[in-house]
């Protein structure tokens, strides 16, 4: 399909936080930006009158808009930073300098120091973050240092040097901020236990630390040290309100390619996330048109090879939703839990958004392709032998057995065909019998279609469970149509789909387009039937009221309704107007009745 227009690309953007990228007609990246709401932010570029010449020039050059969906604004900020630093787009200025976001480092040494840094050095040290502000880092470090005594010196605290008494405790020891490992006052085992607790804090697991803080606060309050207790309480509040590290970035995930696939009957959509030093530096979704009935595994395998070649990826490890064969040189990992699984889910979410945008664009510019895809999907989901281009749905309507009616609505190519809707008065059934009523209307409907040699539907949907479905099958048997038209029943409560001679119902994905069309059919049949039923009850109620007036018979009622059109107008008419239609005697009775009412 040809490149969608910018207007169309904007129209199908999601209302989600993320990062957007503008490209010119030659595919050159012009600008990267972040947004709380992608659609609103990108739309603003094309609706505002900018004073800045560079901004106006940028907007003129935009030919393609790409985006990456993330969970939060924080994720968008960090991802924007990664992309700008990696690609240096021409129109980005703010994040092109050497400034980077801060990390918390747990140094790789015998008694590890914990400190903030903006540089990552590959020496085996652990890095957590990045954080969106240094204030957040200092808050966390203040909390950590307030709870766990840690050294701040840069001495080489080897066992030999401590034993040789090379160092003396400093002011930090006397202030109570350090337990003095330099003189052997603090065991290595206890120090590393505290480091493990600190790891939990920076990972966002505050449970143990919160418990200790709360115990500390209660003890201080019991000792009547209320000011100190209040300071501890403030730290608890900060911890409880603090959101854990970004899901977009995890420093432990380095030099990895992530691939996921979403597919339908006709197309596969493969999303690729490239991760370097724990940060997403690239996102790309590839659309693949199916030629045969390829599996997701086959499509994903082909796409991985194509995308890695296209972007010259040399990563030795990939994350995928299921096993694929890519040779011995690449480690294939299928994440089940934690941060790796979250990255996989993020990739899948981007593939889903891409697919939805394509659907919206196709629906606008190529409705025939949209219809073909929907029909092919319904055929597959409902286990049919042919595409359900013509569907008819039946519903009964009666209240306490009065005025029983039924409705038949018709969908063609997935859309309502209102000129083909039909309504039925129940003729052969006495009382509220939904099963017999359904049998009657299905028989009448298809007997007439056969008689008039009209085309039959590929699918009949019965609003009801096994009972209504069985009754409908009796009618098809009588007409010799069983097996020639697919028929299913849908039960309202759990959206169960029942098939003839199959006791086990089918459950479709609640978000599937097939189920949505079936629900639309069922709701439309219910609406159409209820409207007819109300109309019938209303007319009967009006007619009955006129007939209850002494001296007013059926012929008089017909004359009145023919002239005045409704009971409301009859009630509003004066004596002269009524006497012209039914004579003075009857007019007097009508005026007296409505006056008393």
UniProtKB/TrEMBL annotation:
Pfam families tied to this protein: GIY-YIG, HHH_5, UvrC_RNaseH, UvrC_RNaseH_dom
SUPFAM superfamilies: C-terminal UvrC-binding domain of UvrB, GIY-YIG endonuclease, RuvA domain 2-like
Main location: cytoplasm
Subcellular location: Cytoplasm
Chain ranges of the UVR domain: 207-242
Domain GIY-YIG: 15-93
InterPro entries: GIY-YIG_endonuc, GIY-YIG_endonuc_sf, GIY-YIG_UvrC_Cho, RuvA_2-like, UVR_dom, UVR_dom_sf, UvrABC_protein_C, UvrC
Keywords: Cytoplasm, DNA damage, DNA excision, DNA repair, Excision nuclease, SOS response
Limits of the UvrC family homology region profile domain: 272-476
Keyword Acetylation listed: no
Function statement: The UvrABC repair system catalyzes the recognition and processing of DNA lesions. UvrC both incises the 5' and 3' sides of the lesion. The N-terminal half is responsible for the 3' incision and the C-terminal half is responsible for the 5' incision.
NCBIfam families associated with the record: uvrC
Family stated for the protein in its record: Belongs to the UvrC family.
PANTHER family for the chain: UVRABC SYSTEM PROTEIN C (PTHR30562:SF1), UVRC/OXIDOREDUCTASE (PTHR30562)
Oligomer and partners: Interacts with UvrB in an incision complex.
Name by which UniProt lists this protein: UvrABC system protein C
Species the sequence originates in: Aequorivita marisscotiae
